[in-house]
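Anyone else keep sequences and structure tokens together like this?

Example one:
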Amino acid sequence: MLLNRNMDFYYHPDPDAVGLKTYQEGYYNKLAETIEQSNIKTNVLEYKGELFAYYKVNNGWTVLVDPVEAEIFEDLNRLTMNIVAIALVASIMAVVLSIVLGKSITEPIRVLKEGVDALASGEYGMHVSVESFDEIGDLADDFNAMSQHLFESDKEIHQLNLDLEKKVEARTLELAQSNEELKASMESFRRKRKEKLKKSNKNLSFAFS
């Protein structure tokens, strides 16, 4: 979206939209006032649960972008819930197994619990080395596979965020360039009109002389 200094839309996907202050019965009025009063040229604001990024152009116009927050954080929230559930289940299993099976498996359980703690703290891709051919070994293998999956998911989400930032920057630059081209066209039009008026005045002066 591209707005002039009065927060009226120069460009908006909705052709019926007039201005940010009146759009959707004034729902974004406070957002418009915040942007107008801000001395910060570029910023990201949270307004009624939505994220808005804006860039103030030197001529007083403003480029406003509304990224879809749900798309950005959906996978990240799902990943966080998985980590919490995994950490809780693995911790309970570690405690129960240590009591039932005794000291012979204390070390594998300790290693596995350290891996769970590391995973819960954000060390995705953490692998544990447990030399056991029983259920503990199977659990360690499952843990390693799950940890690798979380690592790959986190990497994909990070890349998605980077791609989104690049798209926002590219769109902002594109709108800024369009604005500069519009300014140049308007200036050229004013110059030509001024030259025509000057020429007309000379012709009139010559006609009455």
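And example two:
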Amino acid sequence: MQNLYSKSDTIKYYLDALQQMQETSEDTSQMQMIAHQKLGDVYGLDGQFDEALYHYSRVLEHIQPSQSKALVFRKMGEIYQKKGDNASALKQYQVGLAELAGKKKSSEAAQILTDIGYIYYLDGKYQEAIKIHTNALETVEGTGDYYVQAIVYKNLGNVMYEWAKFDQSIEYWEKSREIFERVNANADLAKLYNNFGELYMKQGDNDKSLFYFQKSLREKEKLGDVDGLITSYDNSGKLYRSMGEFDKSLKSYKKALEIAEQIGSVRKIGIINNNLASMYLSRNEFKKAIEHLEKCLLIFEKIDLTKGLAYSLANIGYAHCELGNLDEAMDYQNKALETGKELNDPYFVSGIYHGIGKVYLKKQDYDEAIDCFYKSLKISEEKRLWETCGESHRDLGEAYLGKGNIEEAQMHLNKAIEIFEKLGNEVELEKIRGISLKIKKP
């Protein structure tokens, strides 16, 4: 596939400049070092990660000040992170921090710390992430580097989002946005717009979500941020799935997967396959979902991504449940629960209770099913996870119908209808209509 967002002209300019500098008799080592660093930056943005690492390594051959060395080690860590190699990323970050040992106030140290915190965040280790981001905030305060401070605010908002503390997320992200706009940090603003889009999608505000996703996508296209485009297309796929627009969802996921495979972003290939599986689950294409989820398991086990592994196991359990393989379904849900027990992720916990409840529902063990659905519903209502709330009400309706309690069944189905009408999800509404028909039968 041709890379539509290539920085080929810029790369050619720096490579030509390097060749000319190498051919002159003058000492151009400092200029060569600058060219290598710029090439590392451009190759990284263009998704050519191995080339980026090569040029950063050439910078390290000549660079001297500890502050400058730390910056290069951080950039190399960020490239490894984009490749999905978090272990190598952490090694680079630790070497960078060692270069800055003894400096209590350092914007570079703060940026490395918040990058480390981001890795813990990606793996679902939110308590550790908060501690490191807070340390980063203390390290940057007083340096006058408001840009790094904004990055830390953004990352703190990300953790609050995963805890479903949406008001605190918005508070941190608004602080971050004010600084990014002031310093014209357009690449960071594009990422932040994407975060707002995800938040409003979780809250069921599809119009606001689509507005921010499209704003983020336009900015990333303008910047040529190849890695960032993967996230934008992936999130657009999730939004269209939640709206029941599966053709648009599939198109967005395929774009995301094509770019991720092109640049070799292993972690994102796994995440997109997991989201594709979720779409197939929504379409009742359970065997296709399992095919994608098994790919996810291989990837997440390889890169040791606990969060991704836990979600994939839970989704496989859900697929087996719908296929009628109830023992396998319960086995996978329990594996997911064991794998994700340290995540402290309310969305995951709510989903697990719901998944186990579905198995009991299929087994016609209605009391156990209702107990699980209420546990899921309580978390979802507290955290305003409206799609999950709707699913819990829908399945509570079916469970009470199984018990013969028509009044309770109708009440929960009506609540589910109210939620999914607000979300504009016609597919879920059709499922509920199918359940409601059972009530009308004599």
